Amino acid sequence: MTYPTKAHPVRRELAAGTCFGAGILLFLVGALSILQGISAVADDNLFIVGVDYVYELTTTTWGWIHIALGVLLALCAAGLLAGRTWGREAAVTLAALSILANFLWLPYETAWAVLIIALDVVVIWAVTTWRPAAN
User: Fold this and answer.
1) How far is residue 44 CA from its own chain's centroid?
2) Closest to 116 measured CA to CA, from 26, 14, 9
3) What pTM does this model have?
């Protein structure tokens, strides 16, 4: 697919704003994942698990998964905000992994996981709709 060589100034600014917004949201998701992981690692009584879950892991294990993913998301956000190509590619990949991790986290903290999944979907949408070649 080819993109037009000249973009309307408003569209160009909207695309740049979308990328900046995606970077900020990605950093927010990373920070929230780190905090979520710390809370799980600390054996907090905040998390309540229902009966018999197929992907059952200890909350400490899930905590470390969320901390590692959160750090990667925050680093990726820095690359995205710097306008790097690897930042865009990593943003989509890591946001998709974050969706998967939070889907598996649903029995532990349903509302929180749904919120993070929604933010990840917005990040993926924003990054994939922005076309830097049109700038």
Assistant:
1) 24
2) 26
3) 0.76
Identity at 19, one-letter amino acid code: C
Residue type, 16: A
Please report, for the chain, how many H helices and E strands are present, in that order.
Answer: 4, 0
Within 13 A of 128's CA, how many CA atoms are on the CB side? 10
Q: What is the arithmetic mean of pLDDT over 25-31?
A: 91
Contacts of 132 (CB under 8 A, 6+ apart): 15, 19, 83, 88
Contact of 80 with 87, CB cutoff 8 Å:
yes
Tokens of 64: 């470390």
Summarised one tens digit per residue, pLDDT across range 79-90 is 988 888 888 889
Handedness of CA 65, 68, 72, 78 (dihedral sign): positive
